[in-house]
Amino acid sequence: MGFILELLFNAFVLLMLSRIISSVHVKDYGTAVGVALVIAILNATIGAILRFPLNLFTLFLLSFLIRLFVTAIMIKIADAFFSGFEVKSFTTAFIMAVILALAGALFSFIV
Fold first, then answer.
1. Which of 15, 84, 108, 110 is deepest in the core (most CB within 10 A)?
2. Which UniProt keywords apply (predicted)?
């Protein structure tokens, strides 16, 4: 149940980011839910595979930054999967990753 609530919350954050940041476009809330689900699945699979060698290379000292970097990559990959979701640059994807991480921390604190 917690995963579903967090997924819906992340979809809401993605939709709000599309309203605030002009270089992000999300068609509707249904698309935002699909994008949030794909980002979660990509982070759990490919993201974990990418994070481990990068964390090992930095001796796990930059773990948080690497997580943000990999999440930004997953956002850009999700951009390729959905026609109703567009992120124009990697910098915007990185900013979205930071905001999603902060919103997720706030959500975990509240719930």
1. 15
2. Membrane, Transmembrane, Transmembrane helix
